[in-house]
Design goal:
Number of strands: 7
Strand order of the largest sheet: 2-1-5-4-3-6-7
Oligomer: single chain
Number of helices: 6
Low-confidence stretches: 1-32
Shape: globular
Length: 178
Amino acid sequence: MKTRIGRLLRACALAGVVLGTGALVSACSAEAGAEIGQRAPDFSLVRADTGETLSLSDLRGKTVIVNFWATWCPPCRAEMPDLQGAYDERLAAGDLVILGVNEEEGAEQVQRFIAEFGLTFPVVLDKDAAVRRRYNVPGLPATFFIDRDGIIRARSYGPVFGNLLPDGIAAADRGGES
């Protein structure tokens, strides 16, 4: 299994180098991760700031961005201002939730990161990476765009730079519409 995943990741990386970032996402999406068009696997994790449990299913009825990240990950750090900006743009409407899923780090470390970046969207702790494994995330960052009905409409492995973030949000906002 690890050998197959390694081959897939090498092939995806090569596709990204040869064809560009969009090709990387397309080439990798065929076999890796939770499937586009399928219900997003539900999970319940503890919020880093309040200690309360938050479940993905509690967010039904809203467009949800699930972003897997870690404080030590440079591309994760680089994309945080864009994620916060997207959240801020839709805060008044209340129809978009960005859910940061931190990987295997402690609450204090994550709280310092939240303060450093001025994050106001919910951040939960995946202390044993169980949710990451359930989503079959090959590396960090990884972002899933989920519609109001809980269906994955787009995903991105790697940072959501350029049009990846607005295009993913638009796909989730459209839901099953053509």
